[in-house]
Design a protein that fits this description.
The complex is a heterotrimer. By secondary structure, chain B is mainly α. Helix content of chain B is 75%, strand content 0%. Chain B contains eleven helices and no strands. Chain C is built from 13 helices and twelve strands. The longest helix of chain C is centred in the middle third of the chain and has 18 residues, at 186-203. Chain C starts with a strand and ends with a helix. Classes of the chains: A mainly alpha, B mainly alpha, C alpha/beta.
Amino acid sequence: MNTSPSTTAPTAAAAPRRSRSPLELAFRHFLRNRAALVSLVILGLIIIACFVGPLFLSNDPTANDWGAISIPPTLSGQHWFGTDELGRDLLVRTLAGGRVSLEVGLLGTLVSGLIGVAWGATAGYIGGRTDAVMMRIVDMMYAIPYMLIAILMMTLLGRAFYLVVLTISAFSWLDMARVVRGQTLSLRTREFIDAARATGVSTPGIILRHIVPNLLGVVVVYATVTVPGIVLTESVLSFLGLGVQEPMTSWGVLINDGAQKLESMPWLLLCPAVMLCVTLYCVNFVGDGLRDALDTKER
Amino acid sequence: MLAYALRRTLWVIPTVLAVITVCYLMLHATPGGPFDTEKHLSAATLANLNAKYHLDQPLWKQYLLYLNALLHGDLGPSVRYVDWSVNDLVSKALPVSLGVGGLSVPIALVIGVLLGTAAAVRRDGITDRIVMLLGNVGNVIPPFVLGPILVWVFAILLKRSDGHGWLPAGGWGDGGWRYRVLPMALLVIINVSSIARVMRGSMIEVLSGNFIRTARAKGMPGHVIVLRHALKPALMPVVSLLGSICISSITAAVVTESVFALPGLGQLVVDGAINRDYTLVLGLVVLTTVTAVVFNLLVDLAYAWLDPRIRY
Amino acid sequence: MALLEVKDLGVRFARRDAAPVDAVQRVSFTLEKGKTLGIVGESGSGKSQTVMALLGLLPGNGQASGEALYGGRNLLALSQRELNLIRGDRIGMVFQDPMTSLNPFLTVERQMTEGLQLHRGISRRDARQKAIEALQRVWIPDAARRIDRYPHEFSGGMRQRVTIATALLTEPEILIADEPTTALDVTVQAQIIELLRELNRELGTAIILITHDMGVVAGLADDVMVMYAGRTVERATAQALFENPTHPYTRGLLDALPRIDDGDGTHDIDAPLRTIAGNPPAPGEAIEGCAFAPRCALAKDQCRSTRPELEPIAGEKDGWRACLRPVDEMMEVVR
């Protein structure tokens, strides 16, 4: 018996769908993740409150309202979060602290991101000995207890804002570098790189113009993972009394302050602590959502 | 196996050396000598002090002298506490840190492994949900927030008949167990969350594997499957995790000792930094780096030793 | 009386965001003492799920229905604890992939002796001795020393022999082998088949052999059941099946076997290899009529609307087919 001609019924022609760019697909996938969406909204509200809020609030973080010392949070009246023993409004201080903490987080992520991407992309693209040496340095730095070095650096170099950012960034780029290197290694073998090289594009040119744009997905995801880490490191340093200096305040400073006055004024600890935790939680969810959304694109 | 161990050990040396050198340079390159704040020193006293700490020598000589001392286990004299050597200060603080931090890691390990296993075996059940929730708590609430909250609940809200908190709010007192409970609890909670999460994920993966199916087909009861067949393979990622826990323990120790005012190594570091006690800080950095690197090495070796497939 | 009697076995998998999948539907067969039953089918035909259901090894979202009578009890209704008394003792199982079926963290000795210790209550030392003998019987050289090694120190073929030896240690009445040779080299395949045949002869163990390879079945089975899309399409003695396949699918499978000669004594080296055009339906796909119809040369309209039931084959003892087209039509095409 000879093989029968294929008798599978032809599938009905699918209705043509509008072609969607990978970015759009990722965006849509992200929107479907409810936890991430809610977190993004909350995060947005917090950011707006911290940066824009003080414009609407009449109080200033260092102003002392001697008529209202150490009052617990009340919704009626002026001081929604209460005040401390110097009559300073806690809500305003929390928002001001949030501004600083978030600024450190964002700037620190930017700086460490730049270092990490540059390091990782170069190592991954050049490969060979250079790669081995560069990643060996990363391995060594991983083993160093960075908190101690950070403490050391803050004591020696002083506590100006930009120094805080630099100190923290100095150790936060390691994960980014590793991930970027991995991604570069896999990109390097793709055809469009060969094509670029064949037309004579120089090595830095290739790295800049062809590899880096394709790293965006991975970089964005890792950036969201880095932000909470940096905010936390700054908070710990501030908690130990080694972070930003007066009159600047950050959540870490406020929490340290609150921890010392727990017996009498627990809200001094709780309000900034809640803000910090909620922010970190939301960033985590957004990061997870981004990772999910961008992962599907890769498939 | 031997070659692998040797190679890994060798890399310890340049790492530690690099750290020491960088810190040393940082300390000495920044303006401000250790005695600048002392205003009442006569020229002679200053000269003597400088001689004692070799500050009158060229930098490279100081560096080599320091390295030499290190090799003999001597971390040098403290700059701040003039009659004490760093070794003395460290040996006073070490038992405190070990007694709290060191002990909390094995406790967290045992609890974390138990919880993770329970969650994996009864997946999607109540145990699982509780464990995941706990995991998130330890993950999201930073130690410097959780610590004060613990203090608030157990030392302030809960009071004994004599008016004092149920547990002390801090301090080391006589070193009795009351002073250790809260700081240890804090460290355990932080570590349990990551260990339990990793253990759960790992156990779930192992339990869905083919060799577990074979064991079930042989009629092995549930507890035998978990204990004899699944536990060892599932522990591997947890062993790897221990390495990074060691590093984060150092930060955790610094924070914990600050929150609870414990006279341990973490507190020593912070004090030393604030007081510009160069030798003390440098000595502690050296000590912790060496410990961290060695510990990581041990973890790597343990990993290779546990898995029978990695044999040379 | 049959050793194992399976009636209307079905396996259904629940899915999170979709309708449940029926991977196996209304499968029935009997297994006599000391006989070998071959279950044949392509991937996705449900053959593995059938035996997994028998031993209670379905994944969490799987549910078995029907009856599987063994020793007067319905295996499908037993709890895991009750099954533990039967699995590894009265019914043994050998899996497809020897590379992953053994625990890499335990020695072979531990994995072989635990079953004996549990089910027979003998000491570890005695169990070890028996295990060494079993390894020798499956032709593992230097068994006494090798037994303390780890699985990764054995080759694939040796590992499979270890698995078989382990399963036979408790002298089970039934051995289920799920594609025991698929992951092995052809030469090793032959050894394993030979081993199974010898063990069946010597120990009188009944074997259920699952495979997609008709050649393997030919060498070993007394009876054969052919499955397609979760259902039985033909069931007969091996002899009858190979001489007179009565279902178009079976016919297609047999034709697909490459042969040295073309079955008629000639040998055309340029003749294309025969295949069955098309692909089997995805598991769980709702099908109207006969599942094989899209690929069948004999299909008519009624095949696409009515599902064929298993009916006895006239003139054959213990022969069953599920096809709406009459047998003679098939035979004509053959000739």
